[in-house]
Amino acid sequence: MAGPLDGLVVIDASWGMPAAISTMMLADYGARVVKLERPGGPVDADSALRKSTDRGKWSVEADLNTPEGRAVAERLLAGADVFVESFGTGRAEALGLGYDRIHELFPELVYCSVTGYGNDGPLAGRPGYEALLNARLGQMAEQGGHRDGPIFMGHPTVSYGTAFITTIGILAALRARKLNGAGQKVDTSLLDGMLAISSMNWWWNEKDISYLARSGNQKGFGNKRLITDPFQCADGKWLIPHTGGPGSYKRMMELLGFGEQTQTIAGPEMAVPLDDVELDIARNKVPQAFRSRPRDEWLELFHAADIAALPVLHPEETFADDQVIYAEVAIDLPDAEHGTLRQIGPVIRFEKSSPATPEPAPGVGAHNERVGEITRSPLWAPVPAGEAIGAPLQGVRILDFSSYFATGFGARLLSDLGADVIKIEPLVGDQMRPLGDLFEAANRGKRNIALDLRTAEGQEIAHRLVAEADVVMQNYRPGKAEKIGLGYEQLRSINPDLIYAYLPGFGSSGPKSMLKSFAPLVSGLVGLNFEGAGAGNAPIRRVIGNEDLYNGFLGAVTVLLALHHRANTGAGQYVESPQLHSSLFVISEHSATPDGAAVPAHQLDSQQMGLSPLYRLYRTADGWIAIAVFGDAAFDRLASALDLAGLAADERFMSTAARAANADALADLLTARFAELGSAQAFTLLDGNRVPAEIPLDYPIMPELLWEEWAVESGRVVEHHHPEYGWSREVGMVIHLSETPGRFKGGSPRLGQDSADILGELGYSADRVATLLETACGRPAVAAAAAKEA
Known about the structure:
The chain is an alpha/beta fold. About 35% of the residues lie in helices and about 15% in strands.
C-alpha cells in the first residue's frame, strides 16, 4: 500500500544526520525524496549510516557550485513540493539557492533550512555539529558518565530531536499550503532540537518547583518515592524498574526485602517525601539487593506484581526482543557488504495508508537519467485560491485523553502550531500534575475539562466532544478505552472522519502489550544506556532524551501524517505509534546482520571521548577542547593550526580512509599536542584557522539561556504568569514558520478550568451545565484537588 505521503516530492540538498533522518522519515511514509549529491558522492557513501538514512531515496548528482549543477537543482525544484538544505547560514544565498530567490521562482514550494543555531542570533555563525553544540551549551556536563569531566554523548539525541521538529515543521507547512496555497520557509536548527528536548526538564518559576534535585548528595529524584535506575543483577545482566505506578514503590520495596521499613502511602506515593531511613535504603541499599537474583527472575517477580521493569540491552540485541519481532518493525534489506542488513523500518502503524518496505539506499547518481520523471502529484498541488490563515493547524480540534508525559507532549506540539487541544482529565487530575515542570511542558496552551468517564454522563459528554473533533489521542493500556466508551470502533460510529491516534507503551497487542511503560525503561530496552556508555562499559544511568520525548515527537508526526491522508482521500483512520516504536526509531542508524551481529553507524570509545580521532574531546593543559574535523581541507587546516606540519603529509593520514585505518596513531599525536596547550589557546588557534572547535562548558547552560534576551526575542523562550506556579520562563517555539508561525497560548490549564465553557459549546443549557459541574465534571472534586495543590 502507498503511505500517507504518496506523491509528495522532496528535494534533499542537505548534509548531516538531522536532515538525513528527517527526509528518511518522509521517504518511509511514501514521499519521493531525491538527494542532490556532489559528483562522486560523499566520502562515506558506503557507510552504515548512509545505508540507513538514505534508504528509499533517489540519488542525482549535481555540483551546486556550477551553473550546470544549479540548473539541475532548479529543474527538480520546479516539480517539487519541499526543498531541504543544511548549507549553513549564508551559504544557500551564495549558491543562488537562498529562500528569497527560490520563493520568487517557486512560490508554492516549502523551503526548509536546517542549521546549527538558526539563521540569526549571536550563535548563528558557530559551526553546526552536534558534538560542538553539546560542548558549547553544557550538554556534555549535564549527562553523567563513567569519569569526571565532559562526556561525549554517544546517543545523538540532538540530531533526532532536530529531525523530529524538522519533519513536524515540514508537515505543518504543507498543511498550511493546503489551506492558503502558498509555500513558506521552515527554520529549524540543532539549537531548537536541543531546546525541544530540554523542555521536559528545564524551566524557571518563582516558586522553584521542579521534580528534579539539581545538586546535593541526592542529585536526581532527591527524596521522591521514585526509583528508575539501571541495576546489575546476580547474573551480571542489567534491568531498569520504575515505581511511578500507584503503589509500585511499596510493592517493589517488599520484593527487595525492605517492606517493613517502608511506609504505606494512601494516595499518590510521590506526594509524600522519603524519610531518612527510606532515603538511605532507596539510594544506597537497593543496588545491593538487586544482586541477589538473576535478571529474568526479578523481571518475572516485578511483572507479576504489576511493577514496571525491563531489561537493559545493547542496540543489536533489541532486534531479538519478543515484542519487536511481534510488531514486525524490523526490515531486511539487501546489502552488498553483508548480504542482508536488518534495520528498524517504518514504525507508525496505519489502518488505511500503510507504507511499503523501503528500497536499499541508492548508489550515488543512480537516478541521474530520471530527473525528467520528477513532477508534482495533483494530490499535493496547492489550492488555486487559498484562505488567509494564522496558524498551520488552524481549525483542527484534538481531544487529549492521555495521562503522563508522552502523548500529552505530542498534543502540545500540535497546540503550539494552532490546533485547539482539549485535555480531558479525571476528576482527581492527571497523575503527573504534582510534577510541575513535566505537566507544564506537556500541557501548556490547552483547554481543560474534568470528566468522570466511569459514568454515563461523563461518557455522553466525551462522545459529544468526539462528534466535533478531528483527532483523538490516548495512551491507555489495551482494553481500557473500550471499557469507558472510548474505543476506536465506538468513536468511529459517532464520527466516521475521526483520526484515532493510539500511543500505548508497547502496542495494542503482543507479548509486552499489557506491561506498564515509563521513561527511561524503553530507552534501556532499545540500547540507549549502553550506546551512551562507551565500548565495553556498564550502562550509564541516563541519556539525555528518552521515550517520553521521542514518543511525543513521533505522536505529533503521526497525527500530521493522518491529517494529510484525510485531506488527500477524505478518510479518517486508526493510527498506532507506541513508545517502543518511537524508541526503536531513534536507533535507526544502527543495523545488524540476520544472525544478530552489530553493524553500528558509530561507536563511542571506552573513555567516552568521542567517535573518532577527529570528532571527539581532548584534554588540554588546563581543561578540555572538542573538535569536529571532516574532509581533507579541514584536516589540513587542523595540522596547520596546531603547527604539526608533517601531519598532513604523513601517508597514514592523507585520506579519510587512511586516517580511519590509523585512528589510534592519529589520536595519540593529537592527544600529545593538545596536552601542551591551554583550552583558550587551543580554541584560538583552531577557530582562527576555521577548524570547528568549542571549549566544553562545565555546567548546563539551560538556566542561563532562559534569561537571554535574544532567545526571548526569537520566541525560543517565553515568559508568562501561571496562576499556580507564578512567573515562569520556559522553552517556547522551536519550529519556526515564516508565514504561519506557531504561538504560545498560555501556561498549562488548571484542573477543569474550561469545563463550563466547553459544556456550553456542546449545546448544554445553563441549568444542565450547572448540574454537570456538580456530577460528571465534579466541581467538588476539582475544588478539593485545587485546594490541596495550593
